[in-house]
Structures are given as C-alpha cells and as structure tokens.
Amino acid sequence: MLTVFLASVALYAQTPGARSSQNVNPQTPPGASRYIFRVPVFPGTELFNNNPDLTDLSPPFARYMEVYRTRDGRPLDKAAVIAFYRDALQSTGWKEGIFRGQKGEPYLAMRTDMLEDLPDGTRIQIAGDFYLWIAPADGMMTVFQKQWRISSPDQGTLNQINAMVTRLMGAAPKAGYQVTRVSTEDGWKTDYENEYLVDRVLYALIPTKAPSARPRLDAPPGTLTLAFLSYRDANIAAAEKNQREAMDYVPLRTAVKDKILVTISGEAARDKLTSLLNAVTLP
C-alpha cells in the first residue's frame, strides 16, 4: 500500500503502555504496532506532485506536503474522502483538529499527541497535525503533515551510548576513518518509523585519505554511516533489529546492546562493517 511520508513516522498512542489524556499505564508492555503517522492513500488515487519548499526533515521536527489525483481523472466524492481519512486516523488515536473549515468545505484537520514517562527516566513526547484539502471537480487532494518528537533516554542508556562513542573514536582511526557527528541524512525516514525510538545519535566515518567534505551534503566515496538508536525497551530494540535485517539494505550491519540498536552501513565489505561494529559494541 502506498503511504504518504511522514507517513513513515509511527506512533503507538492509545495502546497499552502509552500515557495520554485517555490512557495512563506505563508498566504495561506496548501492544501491537499501530503506526499513526502512516497515512493510507485513498483508493483510486496516485501521487501527482509534492512541494519541496514545504519539506523540512530536520529532527525532531518535520513537515511534508504531497498532492494526489485520481488515476482516471474522475472527480472525487469529498464526503467519501473525508470519511475515509477520518476513520483511518481515528482508529489509531487521532482526534479532530482545532481548526475548522466552513460548512461544506472539503477540508479535514486531525491531530495526535502522546506523552509517556517511564519509571527508569525515559521520556517520550511525540505529536503531529494532519491537514487534507480536496478539489472534488479536479479529482485532486492535498495532504500536509507536520510532526515533532522531543524525547530523552534514561541515564543508563546515555552512559552506554557515551561509552560506545568513546570506543568508536578509538576504533575508527585504526580502520582508516575519521569520525564526524552529523544531524541527519536519508536514513531519517527509516529511523523514525518506530515511535518508541527515543533518541538518534548519528556519525559519519570518512576515509582518512578522502578529501575534506561536509558529510551531510557531499560525503566522499567510502563514507560509512553509524547510528545509535535508543528505544523504550530492549524488546523493541531487538524487534527493530530483526526488521532492519529482513529489509533490502545493502550493506547493513546491526547489533543490539540492551535498549540500543547500533547500525553501520556504507561502501565497504561486510566483514569490515562487522569488525567496526564489534569494536563499538563489544564487550
């Protein structure tokens, strides 16, 4: 099924374990995955255009706009479209937005939020807005989303990440790389698919012999990407590891250390990626 990106960012609000205005029970394990930011595409429509000027993928905030049209050019039934999206979003925890269109206006606004404080000090805060405009006669509709997540891991997880970063700083030069911390890159969408991702710490490993470059914009050939992804608990981190390894990443190496998933990928032999990963995560 096609999805609208921000769409790729997920949230388990209204499931056991989430603290929201309706549900407070942090000791209960999270229920089945219910991705609130994964928005289905209305049947019979396809992506027509997106607006790069309205795209901002800079964690912890993001926004995105896309335009869809009917595949055969037929007009849209505005009532059916609004009912479809309202039902899809409400079933995963969304509520009516604070903005209201005029009576009969082909428009829908929805919003969601989740705030969860775990006993170990982990704090998860994620929210989003969804807007839908329909041009029925033209068979077109515009989807705009914005979302933000401001979460923080517990102190024990922070200590583990700091220790692994220290090992990375020691191991990378021996393998022929210089280490640079970066804020984001193309993997942002994948990393944020799970709303129980608490924090994301990202590094670029640049070949020592490569010319100086800004990793986010024009990384030299052979640059590797290493990410420390912390989740709300070890089970979710392990599940995310299994999901990543089942997907078509070439190449990708992963390891789990308690609540932290560590990934490394790039233009290098798998045994070299594995060696660097082991140096960071072991013992």
Write the layout of secondary structure elements.
Elements: E1 3-4, E2 39-40, E3 45-50, E4 56-58, E5 61-70, H1 78-90, E6 95-96, E7 107-117, E8 123-135, E9 140-149, H2 155-174, E10 177-182, H3 188-191, E11 197-207, H4 215-218, E12 224-231, H5 234-246, E13 252-257, E14 260-266, H6 270-281
Antiparallel strand pairs: 1-2, 3-5, 4-5, 5-9, 6-7, 7-8, 8-9, 10-11, 11-12, 12-14, 13-14
Could you explain the architecture of this structure?
- The chain has 283 residues and is an alpha+beta fold.
- It folds into two domains: 3-149, no CATH class; 155-281, no CATH class.
- The chain is 23% helix and 34% strand.
- It has helices at 78-90, 155-174, 188-191, 215-218, 234-246, 270-281; strands at residues 3-4, 39-40, 45-50, 56-58, 61-70, 95-96, 107-117, 123-135, 140-149, 177-182, 197-207, 224-231, 252-257, 260-266.
- Strands 3, 4, 5, 6, 7, 8 and 9 form a seven-stranded antiparallel β-sheet that branches.
- The longest helix has 20 residues, at 155-174.
Summarize this structure briefly.
The chain is an alpha+beta fold and 283 residues long. The protein has helices at 78-90, 155-174, 188-191, 215-218, 234-246, 270-281, and strands at 3-4, 39-40, 45-50, 56-58, 61-70, 95-96, 107-117, 123-135, 140-149, 177-182, 197-207, 224-231, 252-257, 260-266. The protein folds into 2 domains: 3-149, no CATH class; 155-281, no CATH class.
Q: How many individual helices?
A: 6
- Helical/strand content category: alpha+beta
How many strands, which pairing sense, and closed or not: the largest β-sheet? 7 strands, antiparallel
Give the total of beta strands: 14
Average pLDDT level? 82
Radius of gyration: 21 Å
